[in-house]
Amino acid sequence: MRRFSLWLRGRPIVADSLLAAFLMVLDALGVGNEHHKASYLVFSLLLPVPLILRRIYPRAMAAAMFLLSVLCTLVGYLVGDDTSGHVALIGLGVMLYTLVAYVGRRDGLIYLVCLAVDLGLSLLILSEPVGGDIALVFAIYALCWTLAEFNGARHAYDAEVAARLAVADYDKERRAHEAVAAERTRIARELHDVVAHAVSVIIVQADGAKYALRHDPDTAERALATIAGTGRDALRELRRTVALLRTEHAPELLPQHGSAGIARLAEMMRDAGLAVELELTGELDDITPEVSLGVHRIVQESLTNTLRHAGSSPKATVRVHRRADDILIEVTDSGGVPVEEPDIPGTGMGLVGMRERVAVLGGTLSAGRTGDGRWRVSATLPLRAETD
């Protein structure tokens, strides 16, 4: 029974057709007491018809029902019958309920006034009110209005709940898309940092090995060893990044670089031909993995850019200083300018990637030339994540 009720709720025409058919049958059963059976049966069939489309076209069907009621009264006057015997006139109350519940009180009030006029017309023409008792008629209308108020309030509540659920679903979907976009950005940033750094070092070392191959085999051998080591490190980083994609994101999967990782990075850049001065102060090995990775990537990207763009015999000074509430990273190069266009073109995304990473960690970053012509990257990363 409950399933049938839910089925009818989703098909208003079917439910209202059943109501109209019920009123037709109930009204037609009273034909035996009427003198003009033909006219009575005609209105028994016509009066319930507007009920079929009452929820689809409420105003039009209410007007049609009212006009049929007036016409029924006039025909009853002409043929000398009392129209109060039409049970189908209960449909007037149903139409009043429909207008109040589905359209609004204003339309319901106008319709109620029209019904009062129709009732007065019946009193004047037939000397009998529709329904036989004016008090009963108004009681029926009052009941229909009250039910409509309750049902309208329920519909308004259901609509508000549905709207809130729709907003919640949209917001959930939007957050999911934003999370996917943020994860893609994070992955792209990691891949850029790993690949750009490794490929830059490999290209520089390969060029050096090519020139030193005939005249200085030892230098060429060291360059090739650096290429091999850089390639292995890059492959290891890529495998770690791919592992993050295949598993749930967890902080323990992030690499713990710390001071040893920065020192190893500086040594690798020295092997690539970049003179690096390193200054590490404060405890850098017990910070959160996210901040540790951020420090490592900023130093890595800054040194890679120096190797690319600082000309011949490049130099860089790296300062990583842990303070009370944050970590200060400063990378300053020697300020050299390449004689010609660099052989290692960049994508222009290195600085953008650093800014994105620093923004995610809630820090600040500045980059630009100093007064003496050198290029400096300065970033601060807060340590508040340790206590969050």
Automatic annotation (TrEMBL):
<feature type="transmembrane region" description="Helical">
    <location>
        <begin position="12"/>
        <end position="31"/>
    </location>
</feature>
<feature type="transmembrane region" description="Helical">
    <location>
        <begin position="37"/>
        <end position="53"/>
    </location>
</feature>
<feature type="transmembrane region" description="Helical">
    <location>
        <begin position="85"/>
        <end position="102"/>
    </location>
</feature>
<feature type="domain" description="Histidine kinase">
    <location>
        <begin position="295"/>
        <end position="385"/>
    </location>
</feature>
<dbReference type="Pfam" id="PF07730">
    <property type="entry name" value="HisKA_3"/>
</dbReference>
<dbReference type="InterPro" id="IPR003594">
    <property type="entry name" value="HATPase_dom"/>
</dbReference>
<dbReference type="Pfam" id="PF02518">
    <property type="entry name" value="HATPase_c"/>
</dbReference>
<feature type="transmembrane region" description="Helical">
    <location>
        <begin position="109"/>
        <end position="126"/>
    </location>
</feature>
<dbReference type="InterPro" id="IPR036890">
    <property type="entry name" value="HATPase_C_sf"/>
</dbReference>
<keyword id="KW-0808">Transferase</keyword>
<dbReference type="InterPro" id="IPR011712">
    <property type="entry name" value="Sig_transdc_His_kin_sub3_dim/P"/>
</dbReference>
<dbReference type="InterPro" id="IPR050482">
    <property type="entry name" value="Sensor_HK_TwoCompSys"/>
</dbReference>
<keyword id="KW-0418">Kinase</keyword>
<keyword id="KW-0472">Membrane</keyword>
<feature type="transmembrane region" description="Helical">
    <location>
        <begin position="60"/>
        <end position="79"/>
    </location>
</feature>
<keyword id="KW-0547">Nucleotide-binding</keyword>
<dbReference type="InterPro" id="IPR055558">
    <property type="entry name" value="DUF7134"/>
</dbReference>
<dbReference type="GO" id="GO:0016301">
    <property type="term" value="F:kinase activity"/>
</dbReference>
<keyword id="KW-1133">Transmembrane helix</keyword>
<keyword id="KW-0597">Phosphoprotein</keyword>
<keyword id="KW-0812">Transmembrane</keyword>
<keyword id="KW-0067">ATP-binding</keyword>
<dbReference type="InterPro" id="IPR005467">
    <property type="entry name" value="His_kinase_dom"/>
</dbReference>
<keyword id="KW-0902">Two-component regulatory system</keyword>
<dbReference type="Pfam" id="PF23539">
    <property type="entry name" value="DUF7134"/>
</dbReference>
<protein>
    <recommendedName>
        <fullName>histidine kinase</fullName>
        <ecNumber>2.7.13.3</ecNumber>
    </recommendedName>
</protein>
